[in-house]
Design brief:
By secondary structure, the chain is of the alpha+beta class. The protein has three domains: 7-82, Aspartate Aminotransferase, domain 1, CATH 3.90.1150; 89-179, Arc Repressor Mutant, subunit A (Orthogonal Bundle), CATH 1.10.10; 183-236, Herpes Virus-1. 38% of the residues lie in helices and 15% in strands. The chain contains nine helices and ten strands. The chain has helices at 7-19, 24-37, 47-58, 97-112, 120-126, 137-149, 164-169, 171-177, 209-215; strands at residues 21-23, 63-69, 76-82, 118-119, 153-156, 159-162, 183-184, 191-192, 195-197, 206-208. The strands form four sheets. Strands 1-3-2 form a three-stranded antiparallel β-sheet. It has a three-stranded antiparallel β-sheet with strand order 4-6-5. Strands 7-8 form a two-stranded antiparallel ribbon. Strand 9 (195-197) and strand 10 form a beta hairpin. It starts with 6 loop residues before the first helix and ends in a 32-residue tail after the last helix.
Length: 247
């Protein structure tokens, strides 16, 4: 594969800029389509090399296409990341100061929780504690809808979690701001917010649900991979990958 950036790379980048994040299967399909449209060499196992060429050109612009895992289903995703800013100020062009403050408070709630989730009631209550301009209930609800639409948060049954895009793009900020609170998954070594926890107080490792499913698959008596205590949690089934371009 040529190390030169061509029209196929530019088309791939344009789509990434429009979508922000795509899952691995979506990225592979996009890579193939871009190569076919511009009549360039396509090698099914060279997606990461193709992206490396793009990243070498994006580096002076403080941009990068990063790979990360969805905590919900274990699928790999590719996200276009702004490297110039490492905290929530990267969102300042789209959100007002009080909206960013509420987003930070929402992150605080999610990171400090045991299950990596924050309920809408707690977030609405946080809106009353803003040091910037207060937000009305209707304004807070609308803001949460925008944060989900813009793929910073994920919502299910009134509970909010950090989206895959947020975890990938905010990784340096999360690592700095929550260094004493955030643990990584014992299996995949990515941040672990939505996960199962070993109940041995001397251990307390965390494992993502998809990693739990894969690690304990076929084992009649699941035991903690770190301390060998019995793993008492329900073992989820391994989920088959299916294409979701936006997460």
């Amino acid at each position: 594969m040529s190390r030169q950036m061509g029209d196929s790379h530019r088309r791939f980048l344009q789509t990434m800029m429009a979508n922000g994040i795509v899952d691995e299967q979506g990225a592979k399909t996009l890579y193939q389509r871009c190569c076919e449209i511009h009549n360039t060499q396509y090698a099914p196992d060279k997606l990461d090399e193709f992206i490396d060429i793009l990243n070498s050109r994006l580096q002076p612009l403080f941009m990068q296409i990063r790979k990360g895992m969805s905590e919900e289903n274990g699928q790999q995703y590719y996200a276009l990341v702004n490297m110039a800013e490492t905290d929530v100020t990267r969102m300042s062009s789209d959100y007002a100061d009080n909206e960013l403050e509420l987003f930070q408070k929402t992150m605080d709630l999610i990171v400090s929780s045991e299950n990596g989730k924050a309920c809408s009631t707690d977030i609405l209550n946080s809106a009353d504690t803003l040091t910037t301009k207060k937000l009305k209930k209707s304004e807070t609800e609308h803001l949460l809808q925008r944060l989900v639409h813009d793929k910073w948060l994920t919502e299910k049954r009134g509970e909010y979690t950090l989206s895959t895009r947020c975890i990938i793009e905010m990784e340096p900020y999360i690592r700095t701001m929550y260094q004493d609170q955030v643990k990584v998954c014992h299996i995949c070594h990515n941040f672990a917010f939505q996960c199962q926890i070993c109940e041995n107080p001397a251990c307390s490792i965390k494992i993502h649900n998809p990693c739990v499913a894969r690690y304990f698959k076929g084992r009649s008596e699941p035991r903690c991979p770190a301390c060998d205590d019995f793993w008492p949690h329900e073992i989820p089934e391994v989920r088959r990958p299916h294409s979701h371009s936006r997460k």
